[in-house]
Amino acid sequence: MAVTLMKLPYAYDALEPFIDEETMKFHHDKHHQTYVNNLNKLVEGTELEGKSAEEILTDLSAVPEKIRQGVINQGGGVYNHDLFWTEMAPEGSTSISEGVKKALSGNFGSLEDFKKKFSASAAGLFGSGWTWLVWDGHKLSIENTQNQDSPVSEGKKAILGLDVWEHAYYLKYQNRRADYIDAWWNVVNWDEVAERLGK
Ligand code: MN3
After folding, report:
1. CA–CA separation, 51 vs 54, rounded Å?
2. Under a CB-based contact definition with an 8 Å cutoff, are residues 148 and 53 in contact?
3. pLDDT digits over 161-195, tens only?
4. Ligand 1 centroid vs 67 CA: distance in angstroms?
5. CA distance 154 to 59
6. Distance of CA 144 to the CA centre of its chain
7. What residues does each domain of the chain span?
8. What is the pLDDT of residue 199?
9. H-helix segments, the chain
10. Which of 5, 15, 47, 163 would staple 168 via disulfide (CB 3.0–4.6 Å)?
11. What's the CA-to-centroid distance between 106 and ligand 1, angstroms?
């Protein structure tokens, strides 16, 4: 079966006023859909057809060289956005567990320090890309990736991801990426972070 566009787990306006409805509609229905369509086109007729974006990205050496960069871009666009929608929730609907607090404090000093470091990393990313909290099997760290490059391709597990492409915020925040990042913290799905940390 071809890769399909994930359904949003909430309404388009559920993340207002932090992430606006119009941005959500364009971002999910247009941008994400395009990655889905393009990935399906790329893998059609290859042995990758029928695999999930995550499966494909986890083993890039199995991707024919001719389509590899395309698959990194389009497959990353599918997988990263699936994660992004899941990692957000309406304001106040989730809370930070003691376990998550402890894990983040242990690695970054305190929860506030973690947020500061993550935000600074996202604000400092030049061009288009993502900021991640990742688990490499030994420790948690914050890292940026360019374009749609995904931590899963480096054998890392994404715990939390923030899309800092301009399409993620430009309609509401224009050039004010820092304001978008500050607002986004209000809609982080901490239950999902706990779930991913626990595994
Ligand atoms: Mn995006």
Report:
1. 8
2. no
3. 999 999 999 999 999 999 999 999 999 999 999 99
4. 21
5. 9
6. 11
7. 19-199
8. 63
9. 21-24, 33-43, 53-58, 65-86, 98-108, 111-124, 170-173, 177-184, 190-198
10. 163
11. 30
Q: 168 near 23, Cβ under 8 Å? A: yes
Distance CA 74, CA 39 (A): 5
- How far does residue 84's CA lie from ligand 1's centre (Å)? 8
At 126 the three-state DSSP class reads coil
- For residue 41 the two structure tokens come to 């086109």
Q: Which of the following CATH numbers is that of domain 19-199: 3.30.160.620, 3.30.70.1450, 3.55.40.20, 3.30.450.40?
A: 3.55.40.20
DSSP 188: B
Q: How many angstroms separate the alpha carbon of residue 167 from the centre of ligand 1?
A: 6
Tell me which amino acid residue 106 is: G
